[in-house]
Amino acid sequence: MKFKNLKILADENISPKIVNYFRENDLDVIDVKEQGWYGKTDEELLKISYREKRFFLTHDSDCGTLIVHQGINFYGLIYIRVKNLNPEHVKSICNKLLNLHIDLEPGCIIVVDETKLRIRQMNRN
Asked: Which of 9, 58, 108, 109 could form a disulfide with 54 if both were Cys (CB 3.0 to 4.6 A apart)?
C-alpha cells in the first residue's frame, strides 16, 4: 500500500499540528492525546496499533528497541528522528513520507530524518 493509504496512530509526543497536517493530506490518523490515552506504555500503544492495523507514528526510539530486540508484535512503525521538534520543521520532514510512492507492507519500520528515509521490512510470524 502507498503511504497515503496508511492508517496511523500518533503517539502523544507527536504535535497536534502534525496530526492535523496528515489529516489535511487525507490520512486516517488517531491521536493518542485525543483518545485520552496519556501514560500508556509504548508496548500498549503498539498492541493497539497492531489490533487496528495502524502504523505507529512516534519520535520515540524505544519503540524500535521493543520491536527489534524484544520481538513485540507491531503493524508498522514510523519513527521521525529529528532534534528540532518545531512543527514546521517536522512538517518539512513529513513531506518525504507524503511523497513516498513505493509499496509499504505491514511489518515495516520507516525511519525519517533531515537527510534520509530508510525502510526496513521485519520478518513477521
From this structure: 9
